[in-house]
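Duplicate of #3305? Posting structure anyway:
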């Protein structure tokens, strides 16, 4: 298939199918000229006349898509997609659309025929609307997430067994990507859960030790820890495990392989205080404010093609909503590090 052949593939039946999508869809050729814009743009009055920008260079008409992202963000996302030769999931940050909605996700999928780039598919979806729909259908969402989680777990288990016999970078990448999908599904699942914690008493040091072993064996990443040996929590161990896993995952994904990730645990003033820190980067103050305000779909990793912005949000809901604690993220400018501080009342945890 030649690079110009993608236009021929957009037959009337294909265009009709794309017009039925509830998401916003744009198809570009290899030179990033606009081949097709689906009807969703006109229905929601994002574009008054979609045909006017067909055959125009995407970046010549980029203002038409300003409701979703700015030009610099688009260019960065294109570069990432080509660099990794795979779909990029980029949560929308720091912008309010002309329609008044916030939080669009943006997916860019380069299309290859053999080794030749022949075009791109861009998809935009309102995550605010998605969250509203999820809230209205919690039981359905939870059931779907539970089913999907089982499928992902089974695949991950098979790949983990295969990895033991081979030292393969591709398998490592697939395993890590599956872990990200697994955590996303688990967090969606937890959004639909309303059960009270099933509390038991357990040592935080034991839980963290198990997590360190997991990351060392499965992801070849070392987590440093300094936990008060006597620090005992009276909490739902599964929920605390999920919180710490989300926060450690965030720290690892936001850092480079050689950067340090530390977990510390102590007590002070009737509180269990747990910190997770990673070195090598800082987070924009505007992003910190939104995370600490409990806003969903905010990610510190957006332009790396990682992160849906649910892990911290779900963790904050668990810590503050179920345990009356606090979860705060901050910068340590002096040490170029990001610190997440989790406070749990000992009389309630």
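Output from current build:
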């Amino acid at each position: 298939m030649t690079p110009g052949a993608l236009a021929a593939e957009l037959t009337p039946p294909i265009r009709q199918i794309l017009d039925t999508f509830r998401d916003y869809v744009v198809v570009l050729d290899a030179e990033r000229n606009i081949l097709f814009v689906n009807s969703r743009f006109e229905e929601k009055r994002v574009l008054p006349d979609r045909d006017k920008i067909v055959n125009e260079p995407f970046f010549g008409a980029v203002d038409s898509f300003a409701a979703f992202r700015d030009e610099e963000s688009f260019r960065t996302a294109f570069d990432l997609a080509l660099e990794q030769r795979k779909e990029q999931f980029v949560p929308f940050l720091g912008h309010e659309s002309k329609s008044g909605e916030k939080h669009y996700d943006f997916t860019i999928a380069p299309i290859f025929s053999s080794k030749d780039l022949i075009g791109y598919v861009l998809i935009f979806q309102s995550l605010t609307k998605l969250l509203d729909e999820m809230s209205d259908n919690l039981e359905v969402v939870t059931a779907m997430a539970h089913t999907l989680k089982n499928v992902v777990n089974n695949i991950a288990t098979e790949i983990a067994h295969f990895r033991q016999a081979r030292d393969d970078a591709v398998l490592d990448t697939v395993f890590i990507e599956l872990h990200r999908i697994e955590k996303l599904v688990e967090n969606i699942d937890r959004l639909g859960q309303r059960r009270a914690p099933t509390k038991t008493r357990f040592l935080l040091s034991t839980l963290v030790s198990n997590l360190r072993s997991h990351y060392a064996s499965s992801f070849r990443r070392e987590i440093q820890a300094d936990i008060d040996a006597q620090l005992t929590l009276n909490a739902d161990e599964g929920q605390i495990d999920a919180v710490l896993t989300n926060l450690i995952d965030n720290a690892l994904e936001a850092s480079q392989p050689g950067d340090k990730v530390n977990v510390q645990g102590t007590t002070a003033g009737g509180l269990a205080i747990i910190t997770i820190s990673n070195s090598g980067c800082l987070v924009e103050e505007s992003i910190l404010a939104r995370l600490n305000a409990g806003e969903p779909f905010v990610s510190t990793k957006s332009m790396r093609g990682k992160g849906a912005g649910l892990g911290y949000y779900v963790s904050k809901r668990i810590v503050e909503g179920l345990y009356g604690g606090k979860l705060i993220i901050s910068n340590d400018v002096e040490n170029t590090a990001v610190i997440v501080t989790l406070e749990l009342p000992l009389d309630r945890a």
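Confirmed duplicate; merging threads. Confidence is low (pLDDT under 50) at residues 86-103, 127-138. Residues 137-194 form one domain.
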